[in-house]
Amino acid sequence: MKHVRLAALAAAVLPAALSAQAPAPAAAKGTSLRYLVAPTGNEARYRVREQLVGKDLPNDVIGVTKDVTGQLVVQPDGKVVSGSKISVKVASLASDQTRRDNYLRRRTLETDKYPTVDVVPTTFTGISSPIPAGQSRDFSLTANMTIHGVTRPTTWQVTARAEGKDVVGTAKTSFTFKDFSLEQPKVPIVLSVADTVRLEYDFRFTQQP
């Protein structure tokens, strides 16, 4: 009987003891993919059609900056993760005329008060997994964009391709001055400025470990 009791006790206690001594299973690794704006290969541009006094045809004004920072965090199924944001320092936007650039900084964009344009991606449409190496994809991106203190949803048309661990491509969208409560430029040498502003972003993101 004594041996029976000992066997029963061992059967009750031993599994619990072994369970307590066994190492806990490793935590599941996070599956999110994090991409940082690369140090080079990024350029943001605006395009606005204007008609100058004394000119027969309108032309596109193009302002450019490479001052872009931020990150994009996505799940393997293409869903955007909170914390994704791209910021463009608008004070460094430069066109072919310094006078125009100064006007935009002081009057239209008020860069002292609103130094950045911020784009917060929310949803990808038309893509559901990372782009395979050496291939490209066309898709759209919905993002909340903040300009001059006003935030509105925007839709970007994106063409991207994979280059090693980098993703490179171009994203485009458009809006009106009124959409973001921006003052439409009015200067003596400019006869008219179209209400539509087109934005283009040539990007390079580098995947992080």
Q: Can you put this structure into words, describing what you see?
A:
The protein is mainly β and 209 residues long. It has a single domain, classed as Lipid/polyisoprenoid-binding, YceI-like (Lipocalin), CATH 2.40.128. Helices cover 15% and strands 47% of the residues. The chain has two helices and ten strands, in the order H-E-E-E-E-E-H-E-E-E-E-E. It has helices at residues 2-21, 98-108, and strands spanning 33-37, 43-52, 59-65, 68-74, 85-89, 116-125, 136-147, 150-163, 166-176, 190-207. It has an eight-stranded antiparallel β-barrel with strand order 1-4-5-6-7-8-9-10. Strand 8 (150-163) and strand 9 (166-176) form a beta hairpin. The termini are far apart.
Summarize this structure as a short list of keywords or feature phrases.
209 residues; mainly beta; Lipocalin; eight-stranded antiparallel beta barrel; 15% helix; 47% strand; elongated; disordered N terminus
Question: How many helical stretches?
Answer: 2
Known CATH architecture: Beta Barrel
Biggest sheet features: 8 strands, antiparallel, barrel
| CATH superfamily descriptor | Lipid/polyisoprenoid-binding, YceI-like
Helical content stands at: 10-25%
Please tell me the overall pLDDT.
Answer: 83
- End-to-end Cα distance: 61 Å
Spatial strand arrangement across the major sheet:
1-4-5-6-7-8-9-10
- Radius of gyration, in Å, reads 27 Å
How many strand segments? 10
Question: What overall geometry do the principal axes of the alpha carbons give?
Answer: elongated
CATH-defined topology: Lipocalin
The level 1 CATH classification is Mainly Beta
Query: Helix/strand/pairing class, anyone?
Result: mainly beta
What is the count of distinct domains? 1
What is the N-to-C succession of helices and strands? HEEEEEHEEEEE
List low-pLDDT spans.
1-29
Q: Give the amount of beta strand, in percent.
A: over 45%
